[in-house]
Specification:
This protein has three domains: 173 residues, no CATH class; 116 residues, no CATH class; 104 residues, Homeodomain-like (Arc Repressor Mutant, subunit A, Orthogonal Bundle), CATH 1.10.10.60. 60% of the residues lie in helices and 6% in strands. It has 19 helices and five strands. It has a five-stranded mixed beta sheet. It is elongated. This is AraC family transcriptional regulator. Pfam families: HTH_18.
Length: 409
């Protein structure tokens, strides 16, 4: 019986939500046979054990069914861990599988050792590595402790000492003939998910939906093993790739390309200069949020025709004298009306927008041309070099010469 007024579905949803958000741990119901067979875990097992058949496996009931409310911790000879929870019959007939998960990072050496110990064919290396990089890394004691806290809070009479351990680590796989092995379906499914997550991230970013994009990014990071590398350089490479993809997403929208490029370059410098692993692990979500904010603030589709015309005029005439007065005159609008409307829709004054857009253009010229800083200053419409340098440092954080030196190095 449940201690609260929750029904079983409420309890199940709460438990799976906690496990997923706190530990990235997936949960599935073993008695929902069709879903279980189509799960990546089952497809992976079919590749490693070609004769694996859920319907005809006599051990399924014996292995997974245990006393009500007991936890069964199963360690595979393939080094991943799963936890089975049999719900008390008076609550549900469900048998829940938590995981699989790993307790250590799946390096190349780890995979090679695992394959050698289990007599696995070398041709399986990429498939195994792809799958293992998608698994969460968590200590089984942490999972058990979390489960005990949840179950003891909701299940009447739950005994947290009811834990059974099954270790197949010493029972290595027999030598299997993989000549007719076909793992194309598994790999196709992986890359289908990969493309779907990226597409969903791009779509959400292009309309500024950070919360939705964050959930897809979390799935993408879990699937690709984004941080499951010991090399800082490899993690940075993954971050550079993410930055490029998000930039490409916004370049397809009505957002001024100069704004997108400035953000891209700022993030690129941030990645390059950061060598702290803990900080790097937080960067994907910070990067995502910045692109979403840019999309929200600068997507011209959300602006009135008057403000769109003002933005487009400024972007096309950066080398000219620009001010609220002359922009209002060109657009034939009252300066006070234009100022209020521009600030209301963009959150910035026209003067601030002009300054930032000029610096964005300057950054582009610093990194793509050999023009002197004086020439760049004049090209973006600022004829006082001292003022240009001061404005640049105020917006970017470093002087123009420091920024160029950093980029070229």
């Amino acid at each position: 019986m449940l201690k609260t007024n929750f029904n079983y579905n409420d309890f199940y949803n709460l438990m799976t939500s906690i496990l997923n958000s706190a530990l990235n741990l997936p949960t599935m119901k073993l008695n929902e046979t069709d879903k279980f067979i189509n799960h990546p875990y089952s497809k992976f097992r079919k590749i490693i054990w070609p004769d694996y058949n859920l319907y005809n496996n006599e051990n399924i009931e014996n292995l997974y069914r245990t006393d009500n409310g007991y936890l069964k911790v199963i360690k595979s000879s393939m080094k991943f861990v799963s936890i089975v929870l049999t719900m008390p019959k008076e609550i549900s007939d469900d048998i829940l599988l938590l995981g699989p998960f790993l307790e250590m990072q799946p390096t190349d050496k780890f995979i090679e050792t695992l394959m050698k110990e289990n007599n696995l064919d070398e041709s399986l290396h990429n498939t195994i590595f792809t799958y293992y990089k998608s698994l969460p890394i968590v200590n089984s004691i942490t999972v058990i402790s979390t489960l005990n806290s949840i179950l003891s809070s909701f299940l009447i009479g739950y005994n947290n000492s009811h834990i059974c351990h099954v270790n197949f680590d010493e029972k290595k796989l027999k030598k299997i003939d993989y000549i007719n092995r076909d793992d194309s379906e598994f790999n196709n499914e992986y890359y289908k998910q990969y493309r779907t997550y990226l597409s969903n991230i791009s779509n959400c970013v292009s309309i500024g939906k950070f919360d939705e994009a964050k959930e897809y990014l979390k799935l993408y990071i879990q699937l690709t093993g984004f941080f499951k590398e010991h090399s800082i350089d490899q993690i940075k490479h993954n971050l550079y790739t993410l930055n490029s993809r998000l930039e490409s997403s916004l370049l397809k929208t009505s957002i001024p390309g100069s704004h997108v490029y400035l953000l891209y370059k700022k993030i690129e410098v941030q990645i390059k200069n950061e060598n702290n692993l803990a900080t790097l692990e937080k960067l994907p979500y910070k990067i995502l949020k910045k692109y979403c904010l840019l999309s929200t603030n600068y997507n011209l589709k959300s602006y009135s025709l008057t403000v769109r015309n003002a933005i487009e005029y400024i972007n096309l005439n950066l080398n000219m004298e620009l001010s609220l007065s002359n922009v209002s005159e060109v657009l034939d609008k009252n300066p006070s009306f234009l100022s209020n409307q521009f600030k209301k829709e963009t959150g910035k004054t026209i003067t601030k927008y002009i300054q930032e857009t000029r610096i964005e253009k300057a950054i582009n010229l610093l990194t793509t041309t050999e023009l002197s800083i004086q020439e760049i200053s004049e090209t973006v419409g600022i004829h006082d070099l001292s003022w240009f340098s001061k404005l640049f440092k105020n917006i970017v954080g470093v002087s123009p010469s420091q920024y160029r030196a950093t980029e070229f190095n």
